Amino acid sequence: MPSVRVPATSANLGPGFDALGLALGLHDELDAEVLPGTLEVHVTGEGAEDVPRDSRHLVVRALAAAFSAAGAELPGLRLTCRNRIPHGRGLGSSAAAVVAGVLLGRELLAELGHGPLDDAAALELTTALEGHPDNVAPCLLGGFTIAWTDERARAVRLDPHPAVRAVAYVPEQPVSTEHARSLLPAVVPHADAAYNAGRAALLVEALTRSPHLLLAATEDRLHQAYREPAMPASAALVAALRSSGAAAVVSGAGPTVLALHVDGDPEPGDAAGFRRMPLDLVAAGAQVG
Ligand SMILES: Nc1ncnc2c1ncn2[C@@H]1O[C@H](COP(=O)(O)OP(=O)(O)OP(=O)(O)O)[C@@H](O)[C@H]1O
Ligand SMILES: N[C@@H](CCO)C(=O)O
Q1: Dist. CA 148 → ligand 1 center (Å)
Q2: Beta carbons of 24 and 168 less than 8 angstroms apart
């Protein structure tokens, strides 16, 4: 019975909209087994009260997409999900679900004698399901990733500097990525695009070699301010943490706030209305058992 362990991820990291991502030490664990003629979905933990238990379940949809990509029909299944990544908070829950589904699908396809789905195809398929590559890349590869798309999805993986630490501040209420993306303008000023290009490049240096540059490198003008009306408390927390010296950003499409800091500097403290979660940066991406 194949199983998979998939990490939470934080995308954008300030200036790297739809491109940069980090794998975090908070994991969903799933397993699947072929059970002819039925579909059973068992869910515990995060989202258990909300997610459907049929073919609309995101992991089942990703499994079906993997089978379809291989030209095979999805067999009857029992899927078990033990969820720890909060849903709709900006910590990559949907990317973790599609990565889990595609990797479980890959294992089941191999068990059933179908051809292999290689790593490039897994990145391509998960990106297509998620809509953008910046969460699925670190979920698959671990570490710190730079993702882009040309005729297909692509990513490179880097090791974050070992002194970088992360604290997530998770609010009670979710904001869907779909809604947060609907707030973005179709066109941005050239000066803002240039500003973000410089900061995103600097962030690669800051996250891998020069963490003292993290505060300057995590400035953004392309998405966070536009999303503020949907998450005013998160925007206020980003501003407060940054003024105290922590490199705080909206995590993914929000509303979680991610504060990066350097080991040895004072840790960012509690914030009213948010669940504070110190999280390791993890080297490994999804692991199949
Ligand atoms: N483990 C899961 N199982 C089933 N459905 C899931 C799972 N995780 C996420 N989803 C679906 O995806 C939705 C959340 O996706 P959304 O893209 O809005 O947020 P997110 O992925 O948590 O945040 P972000 O993309 O900003 O990091 C949930 O409401 C649910 O419908
Ligand atoms: N880059 C994406 C990440 C969330 O899925 C966004 O900010 O909308």
Answers
A1: 21
A2: yes
Helix spans in 183-276 (H): 190-208, 214-217, 224-227, 232-243
pLDDT in tens, 123-133: 999 999 999 99
What domains, with CATH codes, occur in the chain? 3-158+284-288 (3.30.230.10), 164-279 (3.30.70.890)
Q: Was 86 annotated as part of a binding site?
A: yes
To the question of whether residue 88 is assigned a binding role by annotation, the answer is yes
132 in ligand 1 pocket by Cβ < 6 Å?
Answer: no
Half-sphere exposure of 181 (CA within 13 A, CB side): 12
Q: Give yes or no for a contact between 65 and 141, defined as CB atoms under 8 angstroms apart.
A: no
Structure tokens belonging to residue 53 = 């238990």
The reported pTM is 0.97
Protein residue closest via CA to atom 22 of ligand 1:
88
Tokens standing for residue 4: 């998979």
90 and 250 in contact (C-beta within 8 Å)? yes
**CA atoms in the 13 A half-sphere facing the CB of 152:** 9
pLDDT digits (tens, 9 = 90+) for 171-229: 999 999 999 999 999 999 999 999 999 999 999 999 999 999 999 999 999 999 999 99
